[in-house]
Amino acid sequence: MKSIALCTAGLVLSMSAHAAAPDPINGKRLFEQSRCMSCHTAESFTSPTRKVKNYAALDSQVRRCDANLSTNWFDDQILDVVSYLNQMYYKFPAPTLTPPKP
């Protein structure tokens, strides 16, 4: 009985350790549904004087917008929007997903 519980626990832990890669297609859908362009223009993403200078800052900015607009996105949805904006406008090197150590 203990071995079944141990196997089940191991399976659950290994499943949660493998985070899905961000989905920029879903990010685009969320971005458009939330009417983000009502405040932002494409120029705000591409201007040489833009505030966002790296991937971490982009993530922080999307989280700020999520909080200010009460979109109530889940973390994976925020990462989808970050991925979409990065792919579409910013072109920052994306961080690599590394599985946690066992």
From TrEMBL:
Name of protein: Cytochrome c domain-containing protein
GO MF: electron transfer activity; heme binding
Lineage of the species this protein comes from: Bacteria, Pseudomonadati, Pseudomonadota, Gammaproteobacteria, Thiotrichales
UniProt keywords, alphabetically: Signal
Signal sequence residues: 1-19
Signal among keywords: yes
